[in-house]
Task: structure prediction
Amino acid sequence: MKMKFDICKNYDEMSKHAAKIFADLIKEKPNAVLGLATGSTPEGMYDELSGAELDFSSIKTVNLDEYYPISPYNENSYRYFMNKHLFSRVNVKIENTYVPNGSAADPEKECKEYDELIEKLGGIDLQVLGIGPNGHIGFNEPGSELFSNTHVTALTESTIAANSRFFDNISDVPTKALTMGMSSILSAKKIVLLISGKVKHNALKALLNDKITPNVPATFLKLHRDVTVICDTDAYNG
Ligand code: GLP
Result:
């Protein structure tokens, strides 16, 4: 099935539209498993959800990825980001929120257990994704494999450069990450991909045709039967 494209006039409208899809699911299935993402793009959606008086008390969340190595208390860790932007603002039980452990002594074991956990939870009902300017999804960088579970990966120079804006120094950016693989992501029942800003125009363009290539990992999403791309006009028009 073709990807669906919803083009919003700006970031705010994109965030509201994405939040509504999550809110509808939470109302319909109060014990849903939400697949969550970090980055600047979903921040607005988390703001909307935090202000929406939704009941997260039986909701479970699994995040896409985490830097490695990084302490969960580091302000740049994805665990810290999630606590700050969503978990501390809604009534989710913190023990029902899962982010790969960036300080695990055995990262390979952590990845294996993360996939087992997702399976035990019954799979992801709705996964939100951002996208890297080079088309990466989670930390599935160009050249990633389609059939991959949660794994340890090396970040590309361009992703380290793009993400260094959050760190004091580019040398502080961890060079590795733990990320759900494309197989784990494609197992989600429904996927919403958020794309905002001119800097993402080329990545978005690669989704508008039928080509699937590991050079742009986001194109693997064309294999899924229920993907909605929600973008703003900046990303769409470039
Ligand atoms: C990081 C994350 C991705 C995210 C991407 C884009 O590399 N691992 O999950 O989609 O950045 O982030 P932003 O939304 O800040 O552009």
